[in-house]
Design goal:
heterodimer, A: mainly beta, seven-stranded mixed sheet, B: 107 residues, mainly beta, four-stranded antiparallel sheet, 11 strands, 0% helix, globular
Chain lengths: 119, 107
């Protein structure tokens, strides 16, 4: 079955850039799904960051739009998140997820990776 | 952004109990609502989408209802594996937003 696995650094310094990758196994990223990032923190709960389609089209949460870039690598069956200018408020568990459209919902999630922003 | 609220924030229940969780949207979202279950250290798992559609493989004791601004998740007979935190999520408009969660604990 399809599985999602996040990877990336667990500790990032304030003002630096976070880069995370989600590897998709058991299925093709070049399918009719929307590949998403969602973060979870005790303070803010679950927060949708945005999605990318395999064609490269994106949709970001306006609250993070100025700092977020998502990309997709169909040859590696991976998609990635880049978040700049980190602060302590960005400390969270970052999940990648697969979204179905019409109706929209997240039908598959990765377990998440904890990212701590600290000097 | 559409704000989602849930009540109660936590509930203590026994195996076999009927549990009801409420989710309210700050504006009408038609039937564009999903429910998720999350256990500690695990990924969230979708239970219900489009307010009342049961995700494949999810037991029929889970039932979703509602439309507009008010929604309910009902667990008809609580099982040991159902102790978890439950979240609602609106899918009517971007940015998608989630409720704060309801923790179902063992009584």
């Amino acid at each position: 079955q399809v599985q999602l696995q996040e990877s990336g650094p667990g500790l990032v310094k304030p003002s630096e850039t976070l880069s995370l990758t989600c590897s998709v196994s058991g299925g093709s990223i070049s399918s009719s799904y929307y590949w998403s990032w969602i973060r979870q923190s005790p303070g803010k709960g679950l927060e949708w960051i945005g999605y990318i389609y395999y064609s490269g089209s994106t949709n970001y949460n306006p609250s993070l739009k100025s700092r977020v870039t998502m990309s997709v690598d169909t040859s590696k069956n991976q998609f990635s998140l880049r978040l700049i200018s980190l602060t302590a408020a960005d400390t969270a568990v970052y999940h990648c997820a697969r979204a179905q459209r019409d109706p929209w919902y997240f039908d598959l999630w990765g377990r998440g990776t904890l990212v701590t922003v600290s000097s | 952004d559409i704000q989602m609220t849930q009540s109660p924030s936590s509930v203590s229940a026994s195996v076999g109990d009927r549990v009801t969780i409420t989710c309210q949207a700050s504006q009408g979202i038609s039937s564009w609502l999903a429910w998720y279950q999350q256990k500690p250290g695990k990924a969230p798992k979708v239970l219900i989408y489009a307010a009342s559609s049961l995700q494949s493989g999810v037991p029929s004791r889970f039932r979703g209802s509602g439309s507009g601004t008010d929604f309910i998740l009902t667990i008809s007979s609580l099982q040991p594996e159902d102790f978890a935190t439950y979240y609602c999520q609106q899918a009517n408009s971007f940015p998608f937003t989630f409720g704060p969660g309801t923790k179902v604990e063992i009584k």
